[in-house]
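A note from the maintainers: we've had questions about how concatenated examples are separated. There is no special marker in the raw files; a new sequence line simply starts the next protein. For clarity in this README we add a label.
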Amino acid sequence: MISLVGSSDFALNVCYYPSSGSYYYCKSRISTSKNILTFSIRRRRPPVSSSLAPQDYLKPADDYSPSKFKGSSLNLFTEESDVLLECKDVYKSFGEKQILRGLNFRIKHGEAVGIIGSSGTGKSTILKIFARLLAPDKGEVYIRGRRRHGLISDDDMSGLRIGLVFQSGALFDSLTVRENVGFLLYEHSKMPEDEIKEVVAETLAAVRLKGVEDRMPSELSGGMKKRVALARSIVYDTTSNTIEPEVLLYDEPTTGLDPIASTVVEDLIRSVHCKGEDAVGKPGKIASYVVVTHQHSTIRRAVDRLVFLHEGKVVWEGMTHEFTSSTNPIVQQFASGDLDGPIRY
């Protein structure tokens, strides 16, 4: 058993697979909160190779259009069966600090959603609640219409995979790129090693990384690490009888990247979506995704619908192209970067 003393300050890359009721983690960091998260980890280390081997900010980019990715997520579904994740009146505090104050919103099949807002409004916290790393103090969370109870000890919640990609990448420092991407397959699949190597190579190619399988994380740039983390989140067990739809949750995926590297990551997020096409020309497999971001380039390139959080609540929702024309003073201040307004630091 591993006890993580901390709340919202985890340096993890976590994928949850409801059909098996398991979490797979990559790295952790201890913080000082009194909240304690405890979960069990089963890990079989794969064979270790000896080889070492990024106003008008929100106008569409000149070279970008949703059709480039075979459609956009502007068609919002109305059927209840299309709702993959939902939170109703969710509250969350860490000690005396109240983060979420009655949060309500949905993620539907096929959507590309951005969660934006000033620092400390609960954006990363709601991702961790969706990913079942945190439990709300009050309110309800639903996965495909079924209410979720507790943390990772939940009973069978099959029918949806949830992947959480942290901004740090959180790769295993002591494992090669191949071992990082194939970690889940080495640990829990029945695939032979040669087949795992082939699947890992194909997945890395899908995120525009070829020939890096034997490198260590320390040999990668920041943008490459983020792409390796993305590859690890989308890798599939080819021997599985069923492949469940997956929702990917990205926490600040372009933080620390230069504008060109950010564009690469933003386009990759689009390409692995079910309405996109990856770098090797195959259809994306991600049913929906959610991106927490402060970056204007990520807002305009990677998402179609925006959810604006302020003081722990949703204060505005709309399509990306509606953002700069909103009359909401909070949204206007955030879009313009003006120091005068309701958002105070």
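[label: protein 2]
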Amino acid sequence: MPQLNPNPWFFIMIISWLTFSMIIQPKILTFVSTNPPSNKTHTTPNTTPWTWPWT
């Protein structure tokens, strides 16, 4: 059964993993977020208790 032979598939997996980790991932990580969450101010919501009509 050819699908049990790891010779071509293991090589393809290693090459694709290395391509992603060494070429694609650093390019993606260089993008700067347009709206970083650290610039947002934390606001506390004004919460009021719910008045249940049957209590």
